[in-house]
Amino acid sequence: MKITVIPGDGIGPSIVDAALKVLEKAGAGLEYETAVAGRSALDEGKDLIPRETIESIERNRIVLKGPLTTPIGEGFTSVNVTLRKMFDLYANLRPARSFPGTLSRYEGVDIITIRENTQGMYSGVGQHVSEEGEATAVSVVTREGCRRVLKFAYETARKKGRKKVTVVNKANILKSTSGLFLKTSREIAPEYPDIETAEMLVDNCCMQLVMDPGQFDVIVTTNLFGDIISDLCAGLVGGLGLTPGANIGNDAAIFEAVHGSAPDIAGKNIANPSSLILASALMLDHIGMGERAGNIRSALEDVLSTKDRLTPDLGGKGTTGGFTDAVLERL
Ligand code: NAD
Q1: Which of 262, 269, 275, 283 minimizes the C-alpha distance to 311?
Q2: Contact at 8 Å (CB) between 279 and 255?
Q3: Catalytic site includes residue 217
Q4: Which among 47, 88, 110, 231 is annotated as catalytic?
Q5: 227 is catalytic
Q6: CA distances, 219 to each of 128, 185, 195 (Å)
Q7: pLDDT higher for 207 or 101?
Q8: What's 51's domain CATH number?
Q9: What is the pLDDT of residues 117-134, one digit of tens each?
């Protein structure tokens, strides 16, 4: 099977390289087509998302992607948001799980956030700042958009043996958009009597996550809330270096780290590759290689719990290459 690999910007190429080594050692047997996007594409004199990159994704449909830098203040639309909309990757799955030996203050956190990925405040509709200094943006939420991500959340919960879905909203204030999301969830929840449903307002949810994360299992929510909540969950398990993300649609899927291109540490060989290694495991789950994905997670867990060659964000003095070697040795 051939997949598209986008090395990305900043720390991207080094952590993608680490993930590819791990995939090979795990025996995934994949072929790769490398494509560029983001800052590195611009530096090569190409578009932010070059035509050949789009064609590669159209051909292969499965993408492993390093973080991409969208130049700020130069009028570019976010590359990530564009890719998600272009391939209709409507569900963003972001698991956050405690690993032993990390700097987290919590133990036993195991939360999957599923975020609607193409609508809401990130629709990019009606963005305008008037000469009088009034800024507007339009949040677009459709019933079908809500329905498909909610179904995805319940189906994921079932597939992964999860017990509870929490529908996070702000329907008391955002009556039309968040209200439609909540109303649609009430239509869908009865189709899944085997799974407990809870409803929670987003502000309370943030407090509850910090006070008692153990009450959460699967969270499903709209775009902006999901973006924030999934970073909060990353914080519960020891930081952005440990959380992968999958952008999933009916015809394509892009697997990536939740974090960005970390320009402050790029080129220093100290980036933690765990998120992208975990993203590659999510990718293997998705393409039916769950056993190999499990082997990768176990190897990584062992490296973290034995504190072998940890990178500085995890409290160690190791390098990206050394940490990757430690994972490879376990595989
Ligand atoms: P960031 O996630 O890149 O960095 C935030 C902090 O976390 C930094 O201190 C960084 O050093 C640290 N960090 C992130 N990943 C790490 C890792 N693997 N190992 C160790 N430390 C790590 O967020 P930012 O600085 O706000 O954004 C930088 C750029 O990334 C921006 O251009 C932004 O648009 C882009 N971005 C891309 C994606 C994506 O491609 N999916 C996501 C978020 C941000």
Answers
A1: 269
A2: yes
A3: no
A4: 231
A5: yes
A6: 32, 12, 13
A7: 207
A8: 3.40.718.10
A9: 999 998 878 989 999 999
